[in-house]
Design goal:
alpha/beta, Alpha-Beta Plaits, five-stranded mixed β-sheet, two-stranded antiparallel ribbon
Length: 166
Amino acid sequence: MLGGSGLRMRVGINTGVVLVGNIGSSDRLSYTAIGDPVNVASRLEAVNKRYDTEILLGESTREAAGDAIVVRQLDRISVYGRAGGTVIYELLGIAGEPVPAWVHPYEAGLDAYEERRWSEAILLFEETIALRGTDQPSEIMIARCRDLLASPPPADWQPVVALQHK
């Protein structure tokens, strides 16, 4: 790095059947990919900014990769322009690399959050921050848990956050 800052980019990865190729007319032809998996990947790329992450994976990619990757389950979201929730994962490394110690309390906190044990979840997310030093997803989840404690949701509450922006 010569006189500048390091490159930082965000990537959204999703797996599924898409249409890929030259699409358009003879006047205006473009090589592109279209389909729901492409749209979800695009939304995941943007969601990285919210969580201060770099690579987010959709559920189908996580399932397809199996044990070849190290991830943390990050959240359950409903992306803009799509009905229903999807679990998202942060890519941390490839198989064989150790799982960072802070991943376990985060995922336990996520389980507690989904089971409506918000006080316990807060403690686990705070433990994650203590182990990692900083963790935007934990900060988001702590704020969400505090809001839920202050104003409990109805009995049919689902742990899915609807993201309203692209």
